[in-house]
Structures are given as structure tokens and as C-alpha cells.
Amino acid sequence: MRTSLLNRRSALFGAALALPVVLQTGSTATAAEGKGKGKEKGKDGEGPLHRALKELKEAKAYLEKAPHDFGGHKHQAIKDVEAAHAAIEKALEFEKKKGA
Length: 100
Known about the structure:
Largest sheet: none
Low-confidence stretches: 25-37
Structural class: mainly alpha
Number of strands: 0
Distance between the termini: 47 Å
Number of helices: 3
Helix content: over 70%
Number of domains: 1
Mean pLDDT: 75
């Protein structure tokens, strides 16, 4: 059980740190392929950036409620999740203003 919890923590922390790279890679690939500039909708009718915002919100809530500090990384992980959330919001605002 402890190993499972550690794996989940590691995956969550890694995802929070990797999100900006994944988003940049995805948007570059989409632009290169000429596929609608990231407007792909999933089964839920939302695009990948909106889904990412929901995941980040869940990750932040999980981190904030955790009774431990993830080996001293909890505070920085929360800050990184908040930064990623803000960056995605700015990207969505840009797309909305651009009319894309």
C-alpha cells in the first residue's frame, strides 16, 4: 500500500512539473500538422486545455489536503501547479481574443 501511495505521489508531482512541456509540445505539433490550433474536443466536449485546468485544480486540492509534505516538495509543487494554471488561462484568453 505504501508503494502504491508513493507511486501516485511521484506521478502527480511529475505530471505537475511536466505539464508545461507537454502543453508546449502538443501545441507545436498541432500547429505543425495544421489541425485547428488545439481546438480538438474530447468525448466530454471540452478541449485539452480546459481538461488540463480541471486536472490541475484536482492536483492542487490533493496537494493542499495531503497531511505530509512530499519530502519537502509540497509547497513548490503547489506553486508550480498554480503557475501552470495561470499560463493555461492566459493561453485561453489569447485564443479567445484572437477569435480562433
